[in-house]
Amino acid sequence: MVQVTGLRKKFGHRIVLCDVNFEFSTGEVVGLVGPNGAGKTTIMKELLGLLVADAGNVQILGQPVSVTTHTVVTQQVGALIERPAIYPFLSGWQHLQLMTNSVEQMMWVVQALQMTGYIHQPAKRYSLGMKQKLGIAMALVGRPQLVILDEPMNGLDPQSVKRLRELIGQLAGEGTTFLISSHILSELEKVIDTVILVDQGQVRLQRTMAQLQESARQSLVIQTTENARALQILLQADYPVIQRGTDLIVTASVALTPLLRRLFAADVQISKVDQQREDLETVLLRLLAEGKA
Ligand SMILES: Nc1ncnc2c1ncn2[C@@H]1O[C@H](COP(=O)(O)OP(=O)(O)OP(=O)(O)O)[C@@H](O)[C@H]1O
Fold first, then answer.
1. What pTM, to 2 d.p., does this model score?
2. Three-state secondary structure call for residue 278
3. In this protein, which residues make up the domain named ABC transporter (predicted)?
């Protein structure tokens, strides 16, 4: 669906993208993540042919994209980059009419994003979240094959975030491909299949969620009535254990029974045992730090 090779971009003397390469397939939901200023929005703008590239190629559905060649973008791609472009005196409905002739599709998206109550009001009366939903609706209403969303959860209430997540899942199930940037990794990880991590204008890693889950470290959280003694027993037995507040954390995947047996043998009372797995944010931060090291 999307293929990016050797993409480079400078703003003045500042290198913002240096040799960006990635690709993904039809039906994938791809998360584009990275620190502030990493280059995510610049990559999205390059994909849409909105910025001149200094070098490299972008192809969508096998067709080249640049500032002068973007037929495939106008026909097959829906996008919301930074803030939605909204005309204050037009209603939400009139904005949707700019994107499609299909009343059926307009009704579908208004209902799906729960915008029925205000869709006929002038957009100047919309709140930040209402404008954001309109921007998302405009990206989706033409039922494009590829949808590019830059921080789509910005300004949305929890119910709308959930609704958007369900909608992305439903459309992806029907074959729509998504590229979504977000800093809310806890939300993003619920919907994406693949992560592309960008830092300082380079792709640091591209992994499927299944691969990341495999590399997520497990830890064991234990609470006892005598943490100091329990800590000593576990350290003596060479367990990698630290104390954090009232928790003892064993920072590796270990067999539970022998560990508990040691504590029972010393008459330590255990009040909680919990297996935890690193979330997406922790795994990515760790992989990024390991890569830099
Ligand atoms: N029009 C521009 N002129 C000059 N510098 C720019 C311009 N647009 C972006 N930059 C710079 O390019 C770098 C990458 O910006 P970009 O917006 O792509 O980052 P980002 O990963 O989307 O960040 P954020 O998560 O904060 O949105 C930043 O250092 C930014 O200051």
1. 0.88
2. coil
3. 2-225
